[in-house]
C-alpha cells in the first residue's frame, strides 16, 4: 500500500505545510513529538542524527540540542515556543524559523496531524538562507515523508 501525506497549499509567504491522518490517538502521536530522542525515528529528511541535549519530554520553554547533517555535520539548539498537550508543539532555532505539529482528534480513534514550517518571522539574512538552500521547495517533501514515517510508527 502506498501511504502518502498531503502537501498543503498555503497562503502565507515563507511557509510550508503537510498533513496526514493517523489511526492512533493524539496522545500516542504527541508522545513521539514531545520526545526529542525519538525525532530521528520519523525524520523524513534523513538530516537528524540524534538528540544530544535536553529533557526526555519537551515542555514550553524547553531547550534541546540535535545532531544534524545536511552535507556537513552540525549541531543545533531548539527552544519550544508553543506547547499544548496532545494538540500542538512548536520549536525554533537560532535562525528563528519554526517547526510546528498540530494534532486534531477526529473522534474515531484517528488524529489529523499537520506539520508546518514557518520562516515568515525571519529577518532578511535568515530569509536569504531559506531561499539559498531551497527550503520552501525541499521542506514540504521532507515533511510529507516525516508524516508517513510517523504514521507507520504510531500505527505499528
Characterise this structure:
It is a single chain. This protein is 24% helix and 38% strand. It has one domain: 2-Layer Sandwich (Alpha-D-Glucose-1,6-Bisphosphate, Chain A, domain 4). β7 (98-105) and β8 (111-118) form a beta hairpin. The radius of gyration is 15 Å and the shape is globular. It has an eight-stranded antiparallel beta sheet, with helices on one face. With 156 residues, it is α+β, with helices and mostly antiparallel strands. The longest helix has 21 residues, at 135-155.
Q: Please tally the helical runs, counting DSSP H or I stretches of 4 or more residues.
A: 3
Straight-line distance between termini: 14 Å
Shape: globular
What is the share of helical residues?
10-25%
Amino acid at each position: 500500500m502506498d501511504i502518502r501525506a498531503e502537501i498543503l497549499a498555503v497562503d502565507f509567504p515563507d511557509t510550508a505545510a503537510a498533513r496526514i491522518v493517523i489511526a492512533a490517538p493524539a496522545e500516542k502521536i504527541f508522545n513521539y513529538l514531545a520526545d526529542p530522542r525519538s525525532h530521528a525515528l520519523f525524520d523524513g529528511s534523513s538530516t537528524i542524527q540524534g538528540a544530544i541535549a535536553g529533557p526526555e519530554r519537551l515542555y514550553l520553554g524547553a531547550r534541546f540540542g540535535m545532531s544534524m547533517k545536511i552535507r556537513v555535520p552540525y549541531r543545533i539548539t531548539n527552544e519550544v515556543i508553543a506547547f499544548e498537550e496532545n494538540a500542538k508543539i512548536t520549536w525554533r532555532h537560532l535562525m528563528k524559523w519554526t517547526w510546528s505539529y498540530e494534532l486534531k482528534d477526529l473522534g474515531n480513534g484517528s488524529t489529523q496531524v499537520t506539520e508546518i514550517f514557518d520562516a515568515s518571522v525571519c529577518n532578511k539574512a535568515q530569509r536569504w538562507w531559506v531561499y539559498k538552500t531551497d527550503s520552501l521547495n525541499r521542506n514540504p517533501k521532507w515533511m510529507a515523508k516525516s508524516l508517513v514515517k510517523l504514521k507507520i510508527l504510531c500505527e505499528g
